[in-house]
Amino acid sequence: MTFNSNNIKNKIEKLREEIRYHNYRYYVLDDPSISDTEYDQLMKELMEWEKKYPQYLTSASPTQRVGIEPVPEFTTVQHITPMLSLANAFSSEELRAFDQRIKKLIPQQKLDYVIELKIDGLAVALVYENGILVRGATRGDGITGEEITSNIKTIKTIPLKLFGDDLPSHLEIYGEVYMKKSDFKKLNEDRIKKEEYLFANPRNAAAGSVRQLDPQITAQRHLDTFIYQATFPEGPKFKNHIEVLNYLKKIGFKVNPHIQLGQDIEEAISYCQEWIEKREDLDYEIDGMVIKVNSLRLREELGSTTRSPRWAIAYKFPAQQVTTKIRDIIVQVGRTGALTPVAMLDPVKISGSVVQRATLHNEDEIRRKDIRIGDTVLVQKAGEVIPEVVKVIKEKRTGKEKEFVMPSKCPVCGAKVSRLEGEVVSRCNSLTCLAQLKERIRHFASRNAMDIEGLGPAIIDQLVENGLIKNVSDLYFLKRDDLISLERMAEKSADNLMNAIEKSKNRSLANLIYGLGIRYVGVHTSEVITRYFPTLDQLRKINLEELIEINEIGPKIAESVILFFKEKENLDIMERLRSVDLNFGQKEEKKRKKKRVQIFTGKQFVLTGLLKDFTRTQVTEIIGELGGRVTGSVSKKTDYVVVGEDPGSKYDKAQKLGITIINEEEFKKIITSE
Ligand code: IVH
User: pLDDT tens digit string along 359-406?
Assistant: First the structure.
C-alpha cells in the first residue's frame, strides 16, 4: 500500500517537473521543445491525476497558478530586507561623477560594472522557501508592501518551484513586473470594445493588473518579469553580480538578455548611449539603464545610504528635443472643466512619432515662458508624456508674434470661466458644458457615486452625441425606446440599464454629492459634508463660514462647494433630480429619526476634552436627538464619558468609578452605525 501510494506521488511529481521544464522553455527561454498540443496533453494528464488523488495536490503545482478566490483587500507585509531605490543620473557627466565617488570610497580597487536595462514596470519582492514560492509583495514604501502572492502566481515567467537540488532554504528575489507593448496594445483595444477605461501606458496597466483583487483578472493580463537581484542569507556564495544573474537564470528565473559587462565607466556610458536609439525596437518599455558595481565584496564595502545603494545608479534617458513653430494656440476644455491652452505646431518627428500639439499647461506658464503665437520653440517629449514647449527661441522673432489671451467664456458652452484664488487653472463650472458632460456622466454613474451598472463610455458617447442627454438629470428621463435606438443595444441590455438607473435613485446623499463632481469633493469629503448637512436642502442653504467651520473642510473645498450651488444651471438640475424622486437625504433622515429614539434612551453622558470633529453644542444635540442627556459632572449615574484631547479631571473620576469611556472615533461609530 505504502509502496503503491509513493509510486503515484512520485509519478505526479515527475509529471509536474516535466511541465515545469516545458513552461520554462516556453515562457522564460522562448524556445519550446514540444508543441502546444503536447503541452496541453501533459497539463490535462496532471489535472486528472490531481483530481483523483487530491491528497497529493500542492500549491506549487503548475495547475495552481490561477483558481484562487478573490481577496477582499490586500494585507501589508514587511520586507525582509528594505527595498531601496536608485539614485538618478541624467548625463554622462553625472555617471563619471558616480564613478569618481566610488573610487574615492574604495581607492586602488579594480572596478568593473554591470549595465542593465531599466525596465519600466513595477518592482516586486518574491520569497522562496526551500525552492517554493511562498510570498510575493509590491515594493510599497520600501519597508512594507502589499501581499500579492496569488496575483504573482499567475505570471507564467515566475517559477512556483525552482530547479536544482541544492537550493538555499531561504531566498529573496527582486525584479520588475511589466506588460509588453504588444500586450498593452491588445488590452486597450479590447477595453475599447468592452467600453472600459483605457490605461495610459504599459506601466500603469501592469501596476493596475498586479493590484487586482481578483487573480483571475491578473491572469488574463499576460504580465511578464525580469529578475535583477537576489539576497541569500545563507547558501551559495558568489563573487559578483554576473554570477548571481547566471545562477538565477539556471534555477528558473527570467533575466534580461541585454546585460553587459563594462571594464570602466566609459564603456558603461557608451552602452547606455547605444540604447537611447535601440530602445524603440524592444517590445517592452525601458526608461533608462542601471549601472551596478559587479563585485559583491565591493558592494558590501560601499554600502547604502538610507534611500539607495552607493554601488548602483540609474541613468535616465534624455528627453528628445526639436525646434518647430507655433501656428496657433487653442483652448481645450478638459473632462473636469479645466481650460488648457494647447500649442498647434508645425508637425515634427520626436522619438519616432509625429508631434503636432504641445500642452502649454496654463496661462501663467505661457507668461513665464513668454510664449506667443508664431514663435519658434524648442519642444520635448520625455518618455510617454505629452510633448511640451521647453523654451522660445527669441532670436527667431519677427515682431509679428501675437500674445495669447485666455478667453473669459468657455469656448464650448459659453459659460463664464472662473479662476479660483491661488489656482493657476481657469475652469468652466457649468453642469451643461458638453465638453465635460461625458466625463461628468461617467463619474455620476461610477461605483462610489450612483453606481449605474452598464452605463459605459460607448453608451455615454452615443447618448451625448445623439442629444439624448444634456446633463446628468436627463438620465432619469430616458425612455426604453431611446436606449433601444442606440447602436448595438440589445433589448435585454436596455432593460438592465433602465433598472440600474431606477435603482440608483435610492443611493445615499453622500453618493449623490460625490457624483455631482464638485471640485475637491471626493468620496470622503462628501461623507463628511452629509454628516453635518444630512439633506440637500440644508446643504443648499449653507454659507461659506458654516462650511469652513467643519474640521475636515478647508477654505478651498468650501469655496468650491459654494460656487457649485450658486450656478443657476446646477440648481435647475437639482430640481429636475428632485422631480424624479431622487434621494436627497430624506431616506436616511427617516431612518435616523427612527433609530435615534432607540439607542441612547435614558442614558447620561458627560463630555471632557476637545473633540476634533464636533463642537460641544453639536455633540449635546446629537445625544439629545438619540434620546440621551448630557450632564456637567461625573457621578455614579453617568453611563458614558466621551473623551477628546487633553481631558480634564472628569476623565480620572470616570476611571475611578468604572464608567464606560468612549473616545471620539468610538462615539462616531456608535452614532453612525446602522
Ligand atoms: S536594481 C537596490 N535593476 O528601478 C535597488 N532596478 O529607480 C535595486 N528597475 O525600484 C534596483 N530595472 O523597480 C534595478 N535592471 C534593474 C531595474 C531596476 C528596473 C527599477 C526598480 C527600482 C527602480 C529604481
Answer: 898 899 999 999 999 999 999 876 556 788 989 999 999 999 999 999
Domain that holds residue 646: 596-674
Q: What is the pLDDT of residues 509-565, one digit of tens each?
A: 999 999 998 988 988 889 888 877 888 888 778 788 878 877 778 888 898 899 888
Catalytic sites, residue numbers: 118
| pTM exceeds 0.70, yes or no | no
CA of 646 to the centre of ligand 1 (A): 47
CATH of the domain at 37: 1.10.287.610
Q: Which residue has the cell 473636469?
A: 336
Q: Are residues 279 and 238 in the same domain?
A: yes
316 annotated among ligand-binding-site residues: yes
Helix (H) or strand (E) holding 498: helix 491-504
342 pairs with which residues across the strands? 330, 359
Kindly state whether residue 284 falls inside one of the protein's structural domains: yes
pLDDT at 67: 57
Q: Do 332 and 282 reside in the same domain of the chain? A: no
3-state SS of the chain: helix, strand, coil percent to 5? 40, 20, 35
- Give the containing element (helix H, strand E) for 657: helix 649-657
- 229 shares a domain with 106: yes
Report the C-alpha gap between 156 and 27 in whole angstroms: 7
The finding on whether 175 has its CB within 6 A of some atom of ligand 1 is no
Q: Is the CB of 291 under 6 A from ligand 1?
A: no
272 annotated as ligand-binding: no
Count of structural domains, the chain: 4
Is residue 84 lining ligand 1, measured as CB closer than 6 Å?
Answer: yes
Quick one: which atom of ligand 1 is closest to the CA of 292?
1
